[in-house]
Design a protein that fits this description.
Elements: H1 15-36, H2 41-68, H3 74-97, H4 104-132
Bound molecules: fe (ii) ion.
Fe (ii) ion binds next to helix 3 and helix 4.
Length: 143
């Protein structure tokens, strides 16, 4: 069964953020799938590395949008992002150094954190943008 089922409720209403969230959810689901189906450690290690990397990319992009929009809760939000990055990096260290296992606890933590963060904190940013009449997109370097 899919760990996190993507649905409308998870949409924050900012296209870029929603697309990146779907990507993040897809990676978490892949990791869960790999764990439950007993995939080899090499594959799990690769997915975990992808999760760490994409988490950072997405958070950076979200924080950039928040800064552009002058979102008042940016500092707090940044702190929450930093805590999750530290946590997934710790998962990765544990995976690499102690038995190379992904545990059910890790997956439950990720599922809970991600869904809760999107539903509560990222949606607050979505509402802020709606009420301020903003539809933020990242300005690409060559755009
Ligand atoms: Fe966020």
């Amino acid at each position: 069964m899919t760990l996190i089922q993507w649905n409308e409720e998870l949409c924050v209403g900012i296209n870029q953020v929603d697309e990146e969230h779907q990507q993040l959810v897809a990676i978490v689901n892949q990791l869960d799938e790999a764990m439950t189906s007993g995939k080899g450690t090499r594959i799990m290690g690769e997915i975990l590395a992808q999760l760490v990397q994409y988490t950072k990319v997405h958070f950076e992009s979200e924080e950039e949008l928040m800064a552009d929009a002058n979102f008042p809760d940016l500092d707090l939000h940044r702190k929450q992002h930093r805590q999750l990055v530290q946590k997934v990096e710790k998962f990765q260290r544990d995976f690499n150094h102690s038995g190379r296992r992904i545990t059910r606890e890790m997956m439950d933590f990720l599922r809970y954190w991600l869904a809760n963060h999107i539903l509560v904190d990222d949606k607050a940013f979505g509402r802020f943008c709606t009420s301020a009449g903003l539809s933020p997109t990242r300005v690409l370097a060559n755009g």
